[in-house]
Amino acid sequence: MASSLFILGGARSGKSRFAVAGLSARARVVYIATAEPGDEDMAARIARHQAERPPHWSTVEAPLDLVPRLSEALGAADTVVVDCLTLWVANLLLRGESDEAILKQADAVAALLVAPAAEVRVVSNETGLGVHPPTADGLRFRDALGLVNQRIAAAAARVVLMVAGLPHMVKDTPSRSVLGGPSLQAP
Questions:
Q1: Fewer C-beta neighbours within 10 Å, C or N terminus of the chain?
Q2: Domains detected in the chain
Q3: Would you name the residues annotated as active-site residues?
Q4: In this predicted model, what pLDDT tens digit does every residue of 148-159 receive, in sequence order?
């Protein structure tokens, strides 16, 4: 049975690197990217991530339509990596989605993680450990992402918190875990 892994952490904590660590060189991997190159810094980050991925991996751009893209990818891959929920939630908020609509989509993502057809690894930022946002938009984003993260963490078989490049197991449901996932050793 395939497993689901949810990887949380702060900025530059090693989340994305951990998400792709330990994948077989022959695995059919679909990488679902939610970022859009809105400025030079983001374009450079996207280019760096693209250069780090093996050329035989498939990349699916899903800045908004994560649920159908994830559903499709689970039927066509050995492993699906979603990087990341943080940008996906930000994109939905910028599009004008209501909090209720975002949480409904998060519930649909969570449902796909309970018994996935392929291994799935989902990345997101843990925003609850940072500074209290000074704006209403910042508060709304933090709260929406926090609720999305809670739903995904509840559904995932395993949850890892990345701190300074080191993984810390938060949740491990042995009956749904499979051997061969990334080790808890730093890559």
A1: N
A2: 4-172 (3.40.50.300)
A3: 49
A4: 999 999 999 999
